[in-house]
Amino acid sequence: MDAVTLSMMDTARAYLKLDKSKFIRESVREKAEAVIAEHQKTKFSAEDWTAFFGALDAPAAPTPRMTKAAAKFRDLQR
């Protein structure tokens, strides 16, 4: 680790009153969570948004198979 990074880490962990090991573990965890969250986001293009909200505003009629499945589900709930 270069001297500048080490100095920054020591200053930051002193503010938080954490030992080096705990500071490193928490920092790695925070960074890992941020990277994972960013990569697991669903990203939509403008066309995707238009199609999505269009489908909400004007949903397609249920197919016969969907109607049958809904009826079967209702029967199972009774």
From TrEMBL:
| Swiss-Prot/TrEMBL keywords | Toxin-antitoxin system
Gene3D superfamilies, sorted:
Single helix bin
Quote the SUPFAM superfamilies the UniProt record gives: Ribbon-helix-helix
Under the heading Pfam families, the entry gives:
TacA1 (PF08681)
Protein family per UniProt: Belongs to the TacA antitoxin family.
- What is the official name of this protein in its record? DUF1778 domain-containing protein
Tell me the classification of the organism that encodes this protein.
Answer: Bacteria, Pseudomonadati, Pseudomonadota, Alphaproteobacteria, Hyphomicrobiales
